[in-house]
Structure formats: C-alpha cells, structure tokens
Amino acid sequence: MTKKNNNNNEEEEEFVSFGHNLNTKIRFEDADEDETAQGSAEAATAQDEPMCDAADITTDAADDTTSADYYFDSYSHFGIHEEMLKDVVRTKTYQNVIYQNKFLIKDKVVLDVGAGTGILSLFCAKAGAKHVYAVECSQMADMAKEIVKANGFSDVITVLKGKIEEIELPTPKVDVIISEWMGYFLLFENMLDSVLYARNKWLVDGGIVLPDKASLFLTAIEDSEYKEDKIEFWNSVYGFDMSCIKKKAMMEPLVDTVDQKQIVTDSRLLKTMDISKMSSGDASFTAPFKLVAQRNDYIHALVAYFDVSFTMCHKLLGFSTGPKSRATHWKQTVMYLEDVLTICEGETITGSMSVSYNKKNPRDVDIKLSYSLDGQHSKISRTQHYKMR
Hints:
This protein is α/β, with parallel strands linked by helices. The chain is built from 9 helices and 18 strands. The strands form 4 sheets. Strands 3, 9, 10, 11, 13, 14 and 15 form a 7-stranded mixed β-sheet that branches. Helix 1 crosses helix 4 and helix 4 runs parallel beside helix 5.
C-alpha cells in the first residue's frame, strides 16, 4: 500500500495559489480542536452526501444492473455517510462557510443537491435560511426526514426523495445551491452534472453556488515498494505467470494516501472549474503539464488531487486534498507508470492528460496520460490509459 501520511497534526492553515490567479490565496479550514469536538457532536445527528438510489430495481432487472446503479445504492448505506461526516476537513469547512457567512444564507431559499442525511441543510437552517429543499435519491432520504424532524427543523427543511433531474421543486427559483458533489479524482461519479442541471433550472439570476471553484492538480512520486507489491506481483504468482493481469492492474488508478516525502516534483494545475459558470462539457478536457524534479530520484507514478474553494465568503475559505494537507476521505489518485523514470534534479516530465466521462457509464472516468522525459539517465515517451470504475 502507498505510504501513509502521518502528518495530520500539521499546521492548520495552509495557503495555496488557486486557479489562474496566482495571487489569490485560500485559507484552508482544518478545524480547531474545540470546533472539532462541536462538529463531532453535531455530526451525530445528521449528514449530507450524494445522490440516487437503485433499491427499487426489480429482480427481473437485476441482470441489467450497472455500476451507475451500484453508485445510487451505495448511498443508501450508513457506512459511507459516517465516513464523510467524520471527515472533519470536509464537513467542518462547509459548517464554517455557512456559520461564518450567514449573510449568504439568512432569509434565502436554499437547494441542497445530494443531501444524504441532511447535514448541510441543517447547517443552513440553523444559519437562518428561509427554506431549504434537500434533494436525495437514495433510501437515506427517509432517514433525513426523521433527522430533520428530530432536530426541530421540519418547518424549514423539506426533504424531497428522487433524482434532481426528475423531481419538481415547490418553488420556481432558489437563491443558493449547496452541494458536496466531489468524487475521487474530483470527477468520479459525475455528480457535478446534477449540480449544473439544478443551477440551470432553478438558480435565480445573481444566485450563488457553494462551492463555486474546484481545481485539479498533478505531481509525481517515488513508490517502488507498493508498485512492486501491486503491479509486479503478477509476473510470478506461486511460480505461475499471470502477467496478463498486469496491464489491467496498471489501468486502475489507486485511491490512497500518499506520504508527502514521496513527492519528487513540483505540482502543476491541470484544470480549474467555475461551477457558477461552466457547462457540463467543460468537465471533459485535455491539459498539458510540465513537472520539474526537485531532487534526484525515481518516479513510479503520477498523483492527482484537487482543491475546492468558496469565493463568495467574506474571507475566502476552502480545502485541499493534496498530499501536503490534512488527510481527507478522498485521499489522492495514484496512476502507476509502465516505466520507472530515473530523473535528476531540474529535469522535466512533459505531457498531457485527457479526462472524459465513460460513454457507457458517465459516472465512470476515462483518463489518457501522455508523458515524456528526455533526461540524463532516462529517455522515454509513452501514452497510457486509465479507467476509474
């Protein structure tokens, strides 16, 4: 397994240049200790998270079940909500955005897309929202209704069970759309499309989307130990050649926590998305990159991670899922290279990454990675394909 990051007690404020404005800096909220205790207590009552439900798939249709169906059904289980609620970086940032910027929420009509157990809706109601519509497609919607009632917000929060693309809101427009739509590699599970659909259909002119910016980054790491264990393992399994599996294993990105000591190069921005303005097609893109080695080492994989920001706040807030930040449930996405790159300090890996949703199942992500190194000890140019399923 990729080496774990044991730096959870790093300084709690990090500043990262965001998007194309390199002078813009974000304060990443990792929660103070007293806030964490408060957040844990509040988390026991409620939560939020993505969307829909396959529980109503009939037995006759079982043979036609797709990974999209499994996605819907997965959010009917408590474990995934528990994991997200206990992700303090994630949940506490949303809480701070709402509680510290009540002017964004107070007396406003709010739409919570993919509400899960309703934690974001509860935050908004407590901050003085006029009304909150919490849309959740999984069976968790039934629990969300009970949670809302148990906390005395039934007159403020309306839980609607169904797909955002299929339900009808009891109001023609909303002032605010809030959602925690991000998946592994930012785009896996493609919940972003649901947020954009809701924005186009219901958001009032001048309304806001929370969060409104998301950026995807790339870096390179040394990871010989785990690559040997995960990839090279197939060359000889109890004395038998199973190397035909090796290429398949290489195509599956690994979601794991990377130790920042493994990082060999700088990090480069691949894509920044403005959720308040972008179109659905903007999530598919090709971006060039140039990674510069910070030391002499070997490179076994490229690693992707994302940052999220809430630029409408009085003081810019956000969080990072990068290897140098406090760990989140998103971890990082590791893409192993067929080659081991021997790189010297100052040498560069150049290339491009193409990202698109899978045509058969748009909740899955296809990645095309082209890279070249013209170094003192390695001269390599290759294209690899990855599939996030």
